[in-house]
Amino acid sequence: MKIKVPHTYVLLFVIICITAALTYVIPAGEFQREIDPETDREIVIPGSYETVESDPISPFGIFESIHQGMDEVGFIIFFVLIIGGSFKMIRATGTIDATIGAIVKKAAGKEKLVIPIIMFVFSLAGAVFGMAEELLPFYPIIIALSIALGFDTITGVAMVLLGAGAGFAGAFMNPFTVGIAQGIAGLPLFSGFAFRLIAYVVILGIAIVYVYRYADKIKKNPELSVTYEEDKEKQGSFDMDNLPELTSKHKRVFAVFVVGLLILGYGLIELGFYIPELAALFLIIGVASAIVGGIKPNDIGKEFVSGAQELVYGALIIGVARAIMVVMTEGMIIDTVIYGMAMAIEGLPQALSGVGMFVVQTLINLIVPSGSGQAAVSMPIMAPLADILEITRQTAVLAFQFGDGFSNVISPTSGYFMAAIAIGGISWDKWAKWMLPLFAIWTVVGAIFVAISVMIGYGPF
Known about the structure:
Elements: H1 8-22, E1 29-30, E2 33-36, E3 41-44, E4 50-51, H2 59-72, H3 74-92, H4 95-106, H5 114-129, H6 139-148, H7 153-169, H8 175-185, H9 193-220, H10 228-235, H11 248-271, H12 275-292, H13 297-310, H14 312-330, H15 334-345, H16 350-367, H17 371-389, H18 393-407, H19 415-423, H20 428-456
Antiparallel strand pairs: 1-4, 2-3
Helix pairs in contact: 1-14, 2-14, 3-12, 3-13, 3-14, 3-19, 4-6, 4-11, 5-7, 5-9, 6-7, 7-9, 7-18, 8-17, 8-18, 9-20, 11-12, 14-19, 15-16, 16-17, 16-18, 16-20, 17-18, 18-20
């Protein structure tokens, strides 16, 4: 008998309820925290864990957590809605369809070469700049391109998500994960570069091969697509036998878009742009593109609302998923869980201790999905623990890096991941089923790299 996977909202609510029930079972506890003067971040004081009075979540509190979760990540939810509205305004000008048409014609007969190129570009965004939420605006374009090239939505989402995810996991210069973790561990900034660069190449290479083979299978037989039914409707927006030509109007809109992206790049690198600034910038790009493209003011409003409506389902998932962490934090069991997992590593042989750290960091990422947040919470514990286990602190950072990176592209508590598949209209269970083999391969490869780092004394210390 085929087991029917629950609706994504139902699945997340069940997880919230189970987590709330655990607040009655798991002892409450907390670490003392302080502000690190070098990084200006709140970090855990090693050895400061102590049990406190239990404060379990009531049944009413379960429903409160959903509102609080949405409130805490409201900036991401609204960002997703603004992105949806902005791209719908640009799409209304016909420029996206015409641009995709031009790419499809040039890529005729060599469509699959687009996959490694796009994944490599987005991997650098993850590996060097630590971009995640910032890449959400690109999903609609790459998904549309993927379908037009004869692939599917899964391939389109994967090119961006797994490209950036591979870069994030194999990051050799990500300041928000490696940089913060090394700073807390007292390591020289971006030390151990060469070893991480090798890991990045291997991790990205595996992801490219995985997506490429899947895309090749879909190209030959579209009915094998995980999103076949959904993509049939999307294909209706492209007349593959009569692709639109790029007109002067489209080129003007495209110029607005390119200028906007250049400003985005400058803002991210030089001005420290984050979600509010990016949302404002894409809203400006959308409105300016619509005006240049000849869309009437009333139609601009209609297109924006229509685009935002299309992403409401996925945008709200981000808030519901956040409620899981809210429950653990309010129930005061999050520190207990982290402490228990960290202590479990002490009993492992040295050869497996690094791998144990990797597994623990993967589990921690389910409850602390922020890379910088996870570094601030776990590294003050893991760095001294590495000293006790007589493995290098650099290995502890590598274990954190892989534990954070791999699970980011499959965990339902990861906000930007849920936003990405929401933009593609892919349910979590469909993505998880498709992604699990790659996640397993990445996990094995990560464990091998961590084990090697233990054996070679990956340093400088």
